[in-house]
Predict the structure.
Amino acid sequence: MSRDRTSRRLPVIITLIVGLMLTIMPLPDAAAAFRPDWLALLMIFWAMQLPRTWSVGSAWIVGLVLDVSYGSLLGQHALALCLITFATVRFHLLMRVFPLSQLSATVFALLALYQFILLWINGVAGVSAPPVTYWGPVITGTLLWPFMHMFLSGVRYRSQSGS
Amino acid sequence: MVASRGSSSNPARIPALGLRVFLLMLVSIGLMYLDQRENHLDGMRRGISAAVYPVRLAVDAPVRLWRWLGDSTTSRNELELELGRLQAERLLTNARLQRLTALEAENARLRAMLDARPAGRDEVRVAEIMAVDANPYEHNLIIDIGSRDGAYDGQAIVDADGVVGQVIKTGIMTSQAILISDADHALPVEVNRNGLRTIAMGTGEIDRLVLPFLPNNADIRAGDLLVTSGLGGAFPAGYPVAVVDSVTRIPQEPFADVTATPAAALDQVREIMLIWSAPTVSEEDVE
């Protein structure tokens, strides 16, 4: 049983590690402002599809790893990621039956919320950050969502039929 | 991992979701509070950063491979050219070095005459930049020297041309460093020409520093070299920082508008040097 559980978790963990690699990969300054929040997108997808295994606790741990790799306040990304995962798990049944366009709009709202929480914590803690690049990751993330959705659905289908 | 493991009869209901989110929020806020106030969480940060280390290596691998390929496939012709250039450069440097030795001896003698403490030599070690931090708001680097190698928070980092930044968070095998161009960084400097002391602050732009605390009548002009004054305690004195490129004096304003270009190529460095300041004789010992 536990072996079965591990084999089902492995694909998700691999996607998360790849997401982390994409997140810390060096990019030119101009492109860095538009780097999508890969891990936020991944957590939204997996929390929507497998809310019993990938829920707020996992999101919190992933967020903590993000905090360390960004060098931000410890707990900042953890809190933001935890909250949007909560919203996703809460509405996962609804989101599963959404058509893709509506789902993308929801993802847009979630990413905007995510960025807003991050920015808000920056403001409260007195960390100076120019707000200009605020919309960059939200827009690229939303544009990427349909492709990620297709790709990850493929991953999920394969991993389940394989085991 | 705090994954849900409730009764699996009804997939729509996740047990105690709200409560768990609430608790995690409290923990996050507590962590942020501790992290902001004091450095209580350095151990935790180090632990997680050690866990992420393989991922960093994996990200860095293609870049290393590319550079290795570039190095190993350079044509013979290019190598010969480079060799010639290096030999000429070495000759020049050697000539300068001879004078430096003489000057150093003279300096030591003069200092001894003045009863001042001797200017020690700094120990230097080359480090490699592993990654540029992903956060576009901050100018941070990850370098491959950590507390294992004796790096410490606040340690100065230079390259061949001048000051690059300083270490801010020491991990076990890697450290995080802040560049002098970061908007949150300030550095005590002095004008090499006349010893005028001031503070150089980062702007968030990689090729620009500002000197916001110079009065309108300060003796500073474009082309002046700024060097570290050593007054902040973190940086040893005398390393070049930046060259002043414009001085605008506005009569109504109390301070002049002075900008400078960093001497180090902040966006091009790959190898940098960490400085262990020489242990200088303390004031009590001199007396």
Notes: Helices of chain A lie at 2-24, 29-32, 38-49, 56-70, 76-90, 92-97, 100-125, 135-162. Residues 95 and 103 of chain A are 6 Å apart (CA to CA). Chain A touches chain B through 48 residues (CB under 8 Å).
